[in-house]
Amino acid sequence: MDIGKFVRQSISNYLNNPIMLLPFAIMGLLTAGFGIFSRYYLHYNLQSLGIDLEAAAFARFVPAPLLSILLNYAIIIVFSVLVISFISSFFHAFSIGLAEKIALKKKPVLADGFKAIKSGFYVFGFKILIWGFTVIGAILMALPAVFLYGIPGLLLACIGTVFLFILLQFVGFFGKQAIVLEKRNAWSGFQRSYHIIWKDLGNVLLLMVAYLFFLVGFVVFKRIFITIASYIIAGFGLIVFSQAADFIFTFLILSPLFVIIKTSFFLKKSNPRKARGA
What we know:
This protein has helices spanning 3-16, 21-49, 53-58, 64-103, 110-116, 120-149, 151-171, 175-181, 186-199, 201-230, 236-270, 272-277. The chain is mainly α. It has a domain at 3-118 and 200-277. It starts with a helix and ends with a helix.
């Protein structure tokens, strides 16, 4: 497979099917809303109490009001992540249903997404599976490491946990596609993703390189825009601008594009006859 040609075709499919933006636009607005609310809560409360967070970080004594604000902020963040992760699972399933039709060279309609949306529960289960393995791995690494080496051991365990999470994300790269397109559960989807990757590891690695290239490029461009905006906009306005930049780069461009790429690749490898006949 010519990965360069495949990615270019996927970009063309993305540009010719604006319907793919719909689920990610809703997800992006939801994420931005939670993000703006949480940042506003922290910004407003720190300002009202006259607390400098950077100065407090280096102080030996942390005032009780600051601890209360940070605790509430952490609760808001955890709640937001759980809610967004659950809701976005259904939008991911919806988008894969649309991307399947695009991969088969058909024009997707909303009904295609709604047929796939019921797989959202299993997609959420897949996310829990990845988190669960990561937490279990972190505990198994941290306990002996801290016991034997103290703080340096804890740092090594943290690095090991990051690598474990990246490995799980790699192995489960096509997990959501397997769940939605082949009606699998979370664990079966994870296994199916592993088999797809192992069957064509070279092309999958090239696909991952393309993904990282796009991701790094978008992160750099977003950082440049936010840096430029910081000279013009200050305070809460900059927070809103940052969320808007994330909405455009992540939810309107990168996410829908790579759902098309991953879904098309999965179909080519899991059902090449069907993909060729499209």
